[in-house]
Structure formats: structure tokens, C-alpha cells
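Aim 2 progress update. The chain analyzed this quarter is reproduced below.
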Amino acid sequence: MVEELRHDAPVLVLGLGRFGSACAEELTRLGRDVLAIDDSMDRVQKWADIVTHAVQTDARDIDALKQIGAQDFSVAIVAVGSSIEASVLITANLVDLGVPQIWAKAMTPAQAKILERVGASHVIFPEREAGERVAHLVSERMLDFIRFDDDYVLAKLYPPKFIRDAALSESGVRSKYNVTVVGVKSPGKPFHYAEAGTIVTDHDIIVVSGTNRDVDRFASLPR
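Predicted C-alpha cells:
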């Protein structure tokens, strides 16, 4: 069973490429203690003044990980994805050290399967997810798009004509298109969760959830 992550737990970030450095920087901005490691001294020096701690070491060496106290962390992010051998070995080292939550970056489904088998708690595909998101945005039917699992998505878009100026309960969005209007953002007003009596106007932006296919179909309706 995966241990529940404390919201303030320090995080070990292994690899300071584009993905790893972005994770480390955002975690630091959110007030988390971050120990970032990389085998490149140039990268370590670049990020030393931004994250809590930055150390140059080879994470493929389990003894090196012990020396920096990796075994004391409850969560780690393996941001080394271009080298399958390195990401798998680093993940295996963290498993051997008893780190309960390990987030590992993968480039391919085959790499993801190996990472899961050696003990990664979560496997992520940042490049694939970014590409998928951009593909939906390029169509100009959506303003934002997030996939939560294999077939469940959340999208931000301008409302189709048929739901405007009527209560959501009257428009029949869910029964007709199998999507749920989660919330509405009106100009100059804060986001609010949608209710049966919520009326969507021409100037609003809505957030909807559902399967990828259903949300795509809903987003393609006339506006």
C-alpha cells in the first residue's frame, strides 16, 4: 500500500533537466524543502540558490544516495527519463532504501512498465501529456485540457449555444452528452461550482468533466 504523502514532506528530486528543475522550482515556490541532485556540477550550481539544497552526485550509486540521506525522504521524483538504464537503476535504489513514494518519469510505455515492476509508486509521461494537451488546444475548441486517468478528462471551454441563458438542469447537458459542468467563471468574478440552477451566459467560461470522447464531442458543438 502506498503511504499517504504529507502535504509538507521534504522532496528528493533526482535529475535537474527541464522536467526535474521545473518540479524542484515549483515545489520550492510552494514552500517545500527540496534536495535536488544531479551528476552535472553545472546544473547543480545553476539551481543551488533556488532550491533548498542541491548536491552533485551519481544517483545510480546506492552508497552515494545513502550519504546524502535519501533513505530519510518519504517522497522522491526520478526525473531522469532519457536513459532507461539510469532511471530504472535509480528507482530500484530508492526502493531498496525504503523510500515509500517514488514518482518516476518515463518516455515510453515499455519504460513505464519496467519502472512499475521495480517499485515506482507513480509513473508519469510529461512529454506525452504536454503533447496531448497542446493537440487539444490547437483545435481551438478548448482553453485548457487535463487528463486524470486513461479516459477521464477535465476541460475549460466557452459554452455551446444550447446551454446559454438557461439553468443547467433545463439544458440537459449530462443526459444528452454525458458530461458534467463542474464550474463556471464569469468575467470579473471568482470561479464557482455549478449547480442545477446555475445559468451560463454568453461571456462565461465553463469547466466540464467526462470521458475524452464525450468531452471532445461536447466541445465541438456550435458556439
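The radius of gyration is 22 Å. The first strand starts at residue 11 and ends at 14. These observations will guide the mutagenesis experiments scheduled for the next reporting period.
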